[in-house]
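Aim 2, interim progress. The first record below pairs a target sequence with its structure tokens.
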Amino acid sequence: MLKQNLQIKLTQKLSPQQIQLMKMIQLSTLELEQKIESVQEQAEKAEAETVSETAEELIDQLKEMGEDIETVAKKKPDTQELKDAASELAESLKDASEELKGVSEDLKEQAEITPELAQEKVQQTQDLSQNAQEQAQLSQEEADQKKEVAQQAQQESLNEKLEENKIKEKLSDAEQEFAQAEKLANESPNDPNLLENYNEAKDELTELKEALKEAAKEAAVAEKKAEDLQEEAVLARNDADIAKDQAQKAMNQAEEAKQIAEAISDQDEQEPISQASEKGSELANEAAQQAQDLQQKAEEIAKALDQLTESAAGNQELLAEAEEADAESA
């Protein structure tokens, strides 16, 4: 209760300014969205479909960030919640800044492209696409093979388990037969036939116990092998999925390079595409810097809140107020 009251005091005295700063950053992210929308428009004019898609994804991420900040601010958060929100925002803005720098470089490169270079890029991307498709095919074949091997191992594991269960059943019967033979032998200790039956039952019981140990060991080994192979099959399938996605991206890049080459082969189209690429590059670079500035502000808020939380433990004034409030509530 005392800790809760101290946290409430901190929230009441210190959080509003920080919340206001977070809201200001939220407004700034809206401006950043608009800037990236301009980048997307220029990318579309420049026939840069991949860049346009990247910009669209960044816009969606920024909208989600803004909604998250608004949700946190509305619930009157304590210092820890606000610090976490600021830290997550800073990390997202860092990623956005790096993405935008990449967009800027891509558009800058496209602004300087000539019809000859465009044709070279078409050939390069087509070669890369072909290699990626071949790699995806190989990965899929490997995944299929490992899946089949894992299924066989699973069946072998089941067979070993069935064999173990069969021996358990035989052992159960043998234990009953041994108990009966032992009882009869004890009742008639001078009967050689009963003694012989007793010894045979005892030997069979011993053999079955050893057989069960061996069967259990083999079943455990088979089960472990099946699990390992299943894990390998899952990893191979994941690798195949990744290779398939990479092949699709390579195909898209090859198609985009082809479209750009066809567009700038027309002298009337070459200059507008170059201008749009150059303008988009400049806007993306500005947006990257803007995202970096916002990242620094969010980091400063998170750091200030962290220091605030640490210093609270030794704040005697707040501690006294919290103790007083705790006493009054009692």
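The second target in this work package is listed in the same format:
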Amino acid sequence: MKRYIIYSLVIAVCALGAGASRVHAAGLSPAQIDSIISLLDSFNADQATITSVRASLGASVSEAVVPAAAGKKAGAGCYAFKSDLVVGSKGKDVAELVKILKKEGFLGTAKHGDVFDGVLVSAVKKLQSRHNIKQTGQAGPSTRTKLGSLSGC
């Protein structure tokens, strides 16, 4: 039932936005698609649903419609995050997060460890703000999808 409501909501939004009864995402900008994905995330939609909706909206492979296997490289620079990142998270996902945040200008050039701390919370909130994602300071599904896209997936 939840999935039906989410799909219905997305179809209604797209139909209104595109002004047609058939959903054609060619008229949607990446920011509009990201907004729809953020809305799905706010309803706690699972990653499979988010991926399916993103594909239905016409996002290209370069926009991470087909994410790499979690934690695996899928091409030059591509990194798919395997789990949500919160304060205290450690390891490879955090190290990759730091690389992306530095590359995108949200984190200074000073050396940063591989533990998710308050500095990363602040940087993640800035990234979320720029990409119209709910500003939680945590890297949940929508933020991880955007990070994957920024890393080249």
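The domain at 68-153 is CATH 1.10.101.10 (Muramoyl-pentapeptide Carboxypeptidase; domain 1). This observation will shape the mutagenesis plan for the next reporting period.
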